[in-house]
Amino acid sequence: MENGGTGTGLRFLAFIEGVSVLTRQESPYRWAVLFTALAAYYLIVSQRTAPGLVTNQWMGEFHVSAGLLGLMDSMQFMAYALLQVPVGILADRFGPSRFLMFGTLTNALGTLATGVATHTWVLFVARFLVGVGDATIFVNLVAVINEWFRAQEFVALLGIIGVAAGLGSLTATVPYALWIHAWGWRSLFITVSLVLFCVAAGLYEILVRRPRRMFATPTVRAGEPVRPPSVRAAIRETFTSRQAYALAMCHFGLVGTYVGFMGSWGVAYLMQVFHMPRSAASAILMLGLFGAMAGGPVTSWLASRLGRPKRLYTLVHAVTFASWLLWFAAGPRPWLGLVLLSLVLIGFGNGGSSLTFAIARQTFPVERVGVVSGFANMGGFVSAVLLPSAFGAVLDHVPADRVLGFHFGLAIPVLFTAVGLAGVLLARDARRSRVIAVQETL
């Protein structure tokens, strides 16, 4: 024990003095990298759902219909979804740090433009920029963990990412609602954009400039040296892999239904159906966020203990599907207690969606983790693109009775989560082989 402690102390002193005896996966500096990247992720996630707090205000101030507003939300998520595979390829080939910084800057510009928008088209462009910036964050955050942390730490750290996402979404409920009530919605978006600009500068310093001086050795991912595949090979192997499609279906069912509903129509649903003020509706949505914050670390911990996450992930999908189905089956004015329980379970399922990337990490070669993660993540945000606009279209077709319109709209997440359940049943478990072979493609 004494010799081990002395060795650790000497290695730490050598690191402080700038001697390159520690790899990235061994250095204490990796925690500074992680928490700086998480700060960016936390703020950007809060901007995914913040527009849901001002849906009614935007409809009045910009004179837009529910369907057009749903289309605007869809544009934000469409930009996110379409860029997932290109971002994954770029992260695998050129490293994630600069793209993480670029995404934070782009998101800051879009958030600033949202705050100063005076015309509908400006608001559309602004939310599209937010989507472009958001598109680079998660895949590159996963790649940063893959680059700076050991393979055995990977699954547990996915749970920490889930907590950061939950805190971001939690901030976009009562705290942001109180801010909007006190100082207006424009000041909120402008302030957050200024903080994001500062975080982008911090990312450059901590993820780009300082590591270049501190570490002379080349970057190694999760302890394994790899040769990045060609772009054509990466795309071909991913787009013909049954496993990749199954994982994308998993994310389609859990992420898009949660993000799309909570971010666009959750507050409006509670205000219309239960006649709640905005602050009370935002407080109730926090139940889903608490569920999401618990779902990430709990499912990641269980998966790391069990070693085979598919069975656990199947249970998560089944519970999420049952929650949406019961909510819809309860009728236009369901019992509020059922809605509260459903929100918790649906949020927990969204937090558990990090198991998509645990399965990807276990069943694909390390040099393809970035592009496969991007492809799977794209599934979640294709769902998030479709749900807000589809929900808005349903509401526009039942203008005389908004409560009935919201009830019909709940059939959409029921169908989407059924797709997710089918995906997890189709996904292969890691026990068959350590990686998916080329011949196991479509």
TrEMBL record:
Coiled coil: none
Topological category with respect to the lipid bilayer: Multi-pass membrane protein
Alphabetically ordered keywords of this record: Membrane, Transmembrane, Transmembrane helix, Transport
Example GO BP: phosphate ion transmembrane transport
Transmembrane segments: 28-44, 99-118, 124-143, 155-179, 185-204, 244-268, 280-303, 312-330, 336-359, 371-394, 406-427
InterPro entries: MFS, MFS_dom, MFS_trans_sf, OPA_Antiporter
KW Transport (keyword) present: yes
GO function terms (MF aspect): glucose 6-phosphate:phosphate antiporter activity
Ranges of residues in domain Major facilitator superfamily (MFS) profile: 32-435
GO cellular-component term (any): plasma membrane
Pfam families named in the record: MFS_1
Location in the cell: Cell membrane
SUPFAM superfamilies: MFS general substrate transporter
Top-rank taxon: Bacteria
Protein name (database record): Sugar phosphate permease
